[in-house]
Design brief:
This protein is an alpha/beta fold. The protein has 2 domains: about 270 residues, Aldehyde Dehydrogenase, Chain A, domain 1 (3-Layer(aba) Sandwich), CATH 3.40.605.10; about 180 residues, 3-Layer(aba) Sandwich (Aldehyde Dehydrogenase, Chain A, domain 2), CATH 3.40.309. The chain is about 40% helix and about 20% strand. It has 14 helices and 22 strands. A 7-stranded mixed sheet has the order 15-16-17-14-13-19-20, with helices on both faces. It has a 5-stranded parallel sheet with strand order 10-9-8-11-12, sandwiched between helices.
Length: about 500
């Protein structure tokens, strides 16, 4: 049964001031209406920002360990509601239950990690060049954070942003993706149940132009954290830069798995299956390119095509299903457009390349897992992010050639190498242009206590996850305490 969801602004669940609403449907069964949501605009954003700014005055003074205790309680509530949230998430965006449970577990892990940081958030001290004087650095919150999250990890990614933001003492205006607003709403319910005060957390539903842009451009938003496409990220960076906002951008990827001749081929096949077709390829860290050394190429491709062909598509609520749907019709069309581009460029379509139809599949936006061979590094399917179940396979002769192919893209998020040669493993860690490198593992599988992010068009240098998130959501303040009882002038009165 569908539900009418609301915004949460200034401590109240409310409709958009315009009265408009939009629908959210199950991509595996488009006839199923998950819910309707407020189609908000700048009026709603303005109200949410005003509430967040007013609440900041008190929230920023709550001791960080106390704020952390609330985040820990949110983690406990997520544990209790894990299966409920996973099922809702699968209905919203399609990935299978195994993965939505994992998405929820990532939020749980992030809650407990962030809660513990409430008792750290370390500054540091340093000796002064003058007598009877102490120098130290402390951390302070910044203000109201605008959080704009994507649909593919509708709980995990918001927790990556919002838990550190709140633990650090900031308030939040949260715009979730319009494809997954229900999971986001449940997350806000969890925060409120955990004790987060009214006004400290606000959720405003709606589109990028009507809600996202007003958040980015609002003069009283101090921090922007965005995950999405590189094209949109560049616009946000430009807008935020004009007002000197602190902006964190987690953007696209074109991630490669390298397989050397000495690799465990069985393991490499398992890795690329999970990396390329988990979440139906709809991850910024998905394995979009497979770069295989010529000595094991035929063996690996024989196994891989057989395994891809055996993947079961269907509604993610079915525990036997391996691959769910594309998130919506528009995205499925975008994926198929890239199939036509690959064929026109001369790549060999080895399997897939068309909508998956028949029976229950006709109800949703399913697409067959697809594999291209004979891909040239300069082809668009080898360089551009597709965000679907499409894998481009490239062959190489030498290690150096593999690295050149791997780095021959505008993105630099994740990467992996399968090898038993320790020298090649460590050289790859050194040589690959990416924020993340896995050795003998796929390009997906980030852990919440480690920094997450990339270089080049993947982002602007900030990292989510681990203590790096707290670096972003706090400012350092340098403090000098002189107890000498006299004027001491640094650099002038320093004794040599």
């Amino acid at each position: 049964m569908s539900k009418e969801y609301k915004n949460y602004i200034a401590g109240e669940w409310c409709d958009a001031q315009s009265g408009k609403r939009f629908e959210n449907r199950n991509p595996a069964d488009w006839d199923e209406l998950v819910g309707t949501f407020p189609d908000s605009n700048s009026d709603d954003v303005n109200k949410a920002v005003a509430a967040a700014n007013e609440s900041y005055k008190e929230w920023s003074l709550v001791p960080a360990p106390i704020r952390g205790n609330m985040i820990q309680k949110a983690g406990d509530i997520l544990v209790a509601r894990k299966e409920e949230i996973a099922e809702l998430m699968t209905r919203e965006m399609g990935k299978v239950l195994t993965e939505t449970r994992g998405d929820t577990q990532e939020g749980i892990d992030t809650a407990y990690y962030s809660a513990s940081e409430g008792r750290r958030m370390f500054g540091h001290t340093a000796p002064s060049e003058l007598r009877e004087k102490i120098n130290m650095v402390i951390r302070r919150s910044i203000g109201t954070a605008g959080i704009i999250s994507p649909w593919n990890f509708p709980l995990a990614i918001p927790t990556w942003k919002i838990f550190p933001a709140l633990t650090s003492g900031n308030t939040v205006v949260f715009k979730p993706a319009s494809d997954t607003p229900a999971t986001a709403t449940v997350f806000v319910e969890v925060l409120l149940e955990a004790g987060i005060p009214p006004g400290v957390i606000n959720i405003v539903h709606g589109g990028g132009s009507t809600v996202g842009n007003p958040i980015v451009e609002h003069p009283d938003i101090n921090i922007i954290s965005f995950t999405g496409s590189s094209a949109v990220g560049k616009l946000i960076a430009s807008s935020g830069g004009r007002d000197l906002k602190r902006v964190s951008l987690e953007l696209g990827g074109k991630n490669a798995q390298i397989v050397m001749d000495d690799a465990d081929v069985d393991l490499a096949v398992e890795g690329v299956l999970w990396g390329a077709f988990g979440t139906t390829g709809q991850r910024c860290t998905a394995t979009s390119r497979l770069i295989v050394q010529e000595g094991v190429y035929d063996k690996m491709m024989g196994q891989l095509i057989e395994r891809v062909d055996a993947l079961k598509l269907g509604n993610g609520l079915d525990e036997s299903v391996d691959v769910g749907p594309i998130v919506n019709e528009e995205q499925r069309k975008s994926v198929h457009d890239y199939i036509e581009i690959g064929k026109a460029e001369g790549a060999k379509l080895s399997i897939g390349g068309e909508n998956a139809t028949g029976g229950e599949l006709d109800k949703g936006w399913f697409y067959k897992p697809t594999l291209f061979e004979d891909v040239d590094p300069e082809m668009r399917i080898a360089k551009e992010e597709i965000f679907g179940p499409v894998l481009s396979v490239l062959k190489f002769k030498t290690y150096d050639e593999a690295i050149d192919i791997c780095n021959n893209v505008d993105y630099g998020l994740s990467s992996s190498i399968f090898t038993k040669n320790v020298n090649h493993a460590f050289k790859a860690v050194q040589d690959i242009e990416a924020g993340i490198t896995y050795v003998n593992g796929p390009t997906i599988g980030a852990e919440c206590h480690m920094p997450f992010g990339g270089c080049k068009d993947t982002g602007n240098g900030h990292r989510e996850g681990g203590s790096s998130a707290f670096d972003f959501f706090t400012e350092e303040k340098t403090v000098y305490i002189d107890f000498s009882g006299k004027l001491q002038r640094a650099q002038i009165d320093t004794e040599q």
